[in-house]
Amino acid sequence: WARVVFVLPAFEVRAARRLPGTKAELLRLWGAGDARPFYGTLCPRCQAPGSRGDPLTPPSPQACELHVAGFRFAVLDGAFVTHRGFKEPGGFHGAREAELGLNRRLFRAFRAELARRYPGSPRRC
User: Fold this and answer.
1) pLDDT tens digit string along 12-63?
2) Contact present, 68 and 125 (Cβ < 8 Å)
3) Which GO cellular component terms, listed alphabetically, does the Swiss-Prot or TrEMBL entry include (predicted)?
4) Which pLDDT band, with edges at 50, 70 and 90, does 114 fall under?
5) Using CA of residue 58, residue 111, residue 5, residue 82, what is the dihedral sign?
6) Is the N or the C terminus of the chain less surrounded, counting Cβ atoms within 10 Å?
7) Residues 6 or more apart in contact with residue 79 via CB below 8 angstroms
């Protein structure tokens, strides 16, 4: 357990819906298209659910350096956080779009740095 990171999944819930209090309620919202992974539309690759389509299975690693360093991720079953409203491209203030572009460029540089920092790691983000 020394190299395991416990993940608390985060979801967006359509603004008109009541926030779920249980996993069963979350799964009902998910099935109706009223819940999805947090930022799932803005960054599908980094926020997508697990390969089986279950929203509470492990997502792609959201903490890149921990992944490259060899940590495993364990998603907590039944525990989650929610955000009211769907995040959509273009739905931010004007400066936010520029911030997101800067963040993408910084992340690309960070990934290159990780390759130098962990040269023997077979893992990439």
Assistant:
1) 999 999 999 999 999 999 999 999 988 777 766 655 544 434 554 444 447 7
2) yes
3) Golgi membrane
4) very high
5) negative
6) N
7) 8, 9
Q: Cβ–Cβ contacts within 10 Å for residue 75, how many?
A: 19
Could you please report the per-residue DSSP string of 57-70? Answer: S--S-SSHHHHHTT
> Of residues 100 and 7, which shows the higher confidence score?
7
Q: Phi and psi dihedrals of 79, rounded to 5?
A: -105, 140
**Within 10 Å of residue 56's Cβ, how many Cβ atoms?**
20
Q: Quote the tokens at residue 65.
A: 């350096």
What is the pLDDT, as a whole number, of residue 74?
87
Gap between the Cα atoms of 78 and 80, Å rounded: 7
- The CA distance from 85 to 119, in Å, is 41
Tell me, what DSSP letter sits at residue 118?
S
For the entire predicted model, the pTM comes to 0.67
